[in-house]
Amino acid sequence: MTGYRQILAVPGLAPLWGVSLLARTAITAVVMALTMYVVLGLDMSYVAAGGAAAALTTGLALGGPLLGRVIDRRGLRTVLLTTVLAQAVFWLSVPILPYTALLGGAFAAGLLMVPAQPVTRQAIAAMTTAEQRRAAFALESVQGELSYMVGPAVVILCAAKVSPGVVAWGLGAAIVAGGTGIALLNPPLRAEDEADVGAVGRPPRREWLGVGMIAVLTMAFGTTMLLSGVDLAIVATLQEAGQVSWAAVVVAVLGVTSVAGGLIYGALPRPPPTWVLLGLLGLVTIPAGLAHDWRWLCVAVVGTVFLAAPTLSSVAEAVSRLTPAGVRGEVTGLQSTAQSAGFALGSPVVGVAIDVSVPAGGFAAAGLAGVAAALAGCLVSRRCPSPQPPTSARQEAERRTDTTRVR
């Protein structure tokens, strides 16, 4: 745990984790909050709720790289203040919007969502050394697991006690508070030796969006597609067994296991490659469908959730390693888009597998999706590996070397 203490001792990093955890916890619950509002507040069907969720998710997928590009060019505070204002306007307006207007507002809110997760990842890359980065990204993945455990559950609990409109206001307030906190901290997004990146110029897309980056983004997509599908398969298994009431216990057990997996991964001196982690994640997921009781289900998916945080952490570390400082915002936005697309696609694909077979088919479909993404990432990266992009300091050293040779 010494490595984790050193990371938390980095000036400004612990406060950033605190405020970003608040924002990320609220952001993970936005889909659930909209669903509860449409179903309970507007008294409409779950199909209508799915439309609002799809509009929000589409905006999130498109907004990630766009906001990241603006951060690269205009700076962090400009984007944060704009997105905080947009979130305040939308969530205050939710209780008075008719359904059609809600769809447009949800898309705009997704497009202008506070970029808490991408900013945290950029700050980690800028504020830590290469030796600290693995453990730092492991903590970031644990933060993500905690937010997914807490956010939707709190929304469901509150929706049962107060009106969905009040829940929307509270959620919006949490997002605004988290985004404002990040803006006040204004964490550095470039290391000291990357401060002159503006003078070097923005690298062309062909220099960083190579096969190595495409392979990592493919594995990011496959990881979240698998995890999203597993969530649905767990619910289907409990429903078939008549044990839906035990879902909270299952989620709690799996959440603790996932956090433990992330912390152990961050302490490893030599972790396996990303494609190996994702391949193992897919393989251990397939037989989880053999469980037909909530107790055995907890045991069966332990391997899946234990490898979830390490795989996500490995993806984030690989993206950071392959990303030049001048496009760090855009690339982390692309990573978020790939993961959002995986989450969006995982549930319907696994849902089809469950409908045409049994809940075990859902686990098989999710696991095979992860194995396929791992194989694709492995084959693409090994066929034509991408070199590690030079830092600004290395570029300057190379420039001076070239000048010396000319002289």
Automatic annotation (TrEMBL):
The keyword Transmembrane applies. Keywords: Membrane, Transmembrane, Transmembrane helix. It comes from the Bacteria. The chain crosses the membrane at residues 21-40, 46-68, 99-116, 166-188, 208-234, 246-268, 274-291, 360-380. Gene3D superfamilies: MFS general substrate transporter like domains (1.20.1250.20). Residues 395-407 have a biased composition (Basic and acidic residues). InterPro entries: MFS, MFS_trans_sf. Residues 384-407 are annotated as: Disordered. This is MFS transporter.
